[in-house]
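Submission checklist for the structure archive. All mandatory fields must be present; incomplete records are returned to the submitter.

[x] Identifier: SMI1/KNR4 family protein
[x] Organism: Kribbella antibiotica
[x] Residue count: 211
[x] Sequence attached
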Amino acid sequence: MTTLDWSDVRERIEHLRRADRRRVVFGADEHTWQLEPPLGPDELADAETQLGVELPAEYRSFVLQVGRGGAGPAYGLFPVRRLAGRWQWDGDGAELTDLDTLDQPFPHVQAFNPADGTPAREDFESDDAWVEAVDAIVYDPKHSIGLLYLCHLGCALRECLVITGPARGQMWADDTTEDKGFRPMYDEDRTPLGFARWYRRWLDAAERQVL
């Protein structure tokens, strides 16, 4: 089965929905094993035109064949919807995706931490002034240009897909809230984790847990 063939997924999710009635799989109590309808080709074309970028192939094929969001890793995939005339992703942390810069390249290929090199406390007259200065650096939206936030794990931890730049198509974790910055995600063999493997790895683990 190629990474662009998702013909098995809806049936597998339905089996999990029936088997996991107690919602023991992490995040299932929120996404409840429901997948939203796929995007139609015209809807996807409209979204990509509006965003000014073509989505990476694996994710693109998923929203066309499986669903625009719903059951998925952690608390589920943020659904893409047309809201107030604009295509956008909906969910806790989905607003971190900067729709206006999604077509600009995410420049990184290695982990980086915006907190590295932030000013020392003694350079400020108060704790509040220091925290404000550090937060302005750490949470500067420029760090996530070209990133599409797809899900949250709780405690403000999120995972995202690189849309543009040298790591296009790879999954990254945003651990900024734990002062760890951004890092690429890897498969067990240390190859960069793409969307398809990221999703299917979660699906395989859920089946091992409850089926």
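[x] Structure attached
Curator remark: The two ends are 22 Å apart (CA to CA). The helical segments are 9-19, 28-31, 41-51, 57-65, 127-138, 195-210.
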